[in-house]
Amino acid sequence: MKIVVAPDSYKGSLTAAEVGLTIREALEMEIPGVRVEVIPMADGGEGTLDALLFATSGEKLEATATGPLGEEVRTYYGVLGDGETAVIEMAQVAGLPMVPEGKRNPMRTTTYGVGELIAAALEKGIRSFIVGLGGSATNDGGLGMLQALGAVFLDQEGNDVKPTGEGLQKIVKVDFRDLHPALKSCRFRIASDVENPLCGTNGASFVFGPQKGATEAQVRQLDKGLQRYASLVEAHLKVQLQDIPGAGAAGGLGFGFLALGGEIIPGAQVVAEATNLEDQIRTSDWVITGEGQSDFQTLYGKAPFFVAGLAKKHGVGTILISGGLGKGHEQLLEHFVSCHSIANAPMPLEQAIANAQPLLFSCARNIARLLYKASESN
C-alpha cells in the first residue's frame, strides 16, 4: 500500500513537515509494508520555504539584507534539491512580525531586502525563483525590490526616491535599463492566493493597508502613490499590469514581480509543481492531508482542498486530518472520504495546541488501523 501524506501546517503548533512525519509514524506502526511519501504543503505564506526544502532535500542559505524598516537583518532563502531554483519568503525579510506594533507604518516600510535576496541568488547562478508573498509589512508596490535590482526611480530634483510607500508619491521618472542583466533569463513563480488588483477600493492600500498600520489618510495617500508609480512603470514597459489579479498582493509586490515578467500562481499549486505531488498521487492508494482548522473556507483554495482535487483527478481517495473542524465542515465530505479532528475529548484550544503531536498520532493511528483492515478485506 502506498499513501501520500501532504498536509499544511497546524499553525501555532506543528509545521507541515512535523504533521507529515507524525502521520507517517502512525501509518508505519499499524500497516505492515506500507510505503509513505511525505510531501508538506503550504499556500505561499509562512512555512512555504521549509515545506519545499523538506520535500526536495533542499538547502537553506543565510544572508544579510535590508529589513522592512531599512535596518540590516540576518535572514535566509532556500535552494531546492535540484540546485537550480531559489525559494524566498518575503515575510522572512519584510514581514509584518518583524516590525514592532508601535512602528507599523507602511509609508516607511520597504521590500528592498527581497531584491537583495534575489540578487544574492543571481550571483550563485540561480535563474528560477519561487517567491511566497504572505505576511508582508509593506505597501511599496515592489519599488524597493526593483531598486535593489537596478531599476531607477527619480524625483523632480533627479534624486533617487526612498524605497518606501512614502517614496511612491515623489516618482516622476522610471528607468529599467540598468536592471540586473541576468533577470532577462529568469523565471519567477509567485505563490499567492490574493487576487486583489494594485489600486482602488479593492487594491493593496485599502484592503491590506490598515492591518499594517496605515491610517485612513495614509491609505488614500498610498493608493494615489501606487497609481502614479504603476502608470509610470506601465508606460515605460509598454504593458498593462496593475489590474491583473494578484498585483495587489503583499502591498503591491505582486505588481513588482509582474513587471519582471513573473506569473502569479495559487500557492498550493506552486508547491505541488515544485514537489511533483501529482506524480506521487497518481501511483498511490490513499492520500492524507490536513491543516490547523478545517471549515467551509477550506473549499476556497486552501491547500487540503487543492490536494483533494489532484487526488480525485486520479481516482484516489483523500482523508482529512485537521486540528479542528469548524463551521460548515459537513460540506467537506463532498471532497474527502472522511474528515477527522485530532481532539479526542473536550479541551481548551491552548491544551489542544500544546498536545497537537500526540493527539495527531493517536488519530492517525486509528485511521491506519481502519485502512489496514479494509485492505485485508479486498
Automatic annotation (TrEMBL):
Matches recorded under Pfam families: Gly_kinase
MF term (GO), any: kinase activity
The entry's keywords: Kinase, Transferase
Claim: Kinase is one of the keywords in the record: yes
Domain of life: Bacteria
Entry keyword annotation includes rRNA-binding: no
InterPro entries assigned to the protein according to its UniProt record, in alphabetical order: Glyc_kinase_flavodox-like_fold (IPR018193), Glycerate_kinase (IPR004381), Glycerate_kinase_RE-like (IPR018197), Glycerate_kinase_sf (IPR036129)
Family in the record: Belongs to the glycerate kinase type-1 family.
Name of the protein: Glycerate kinase
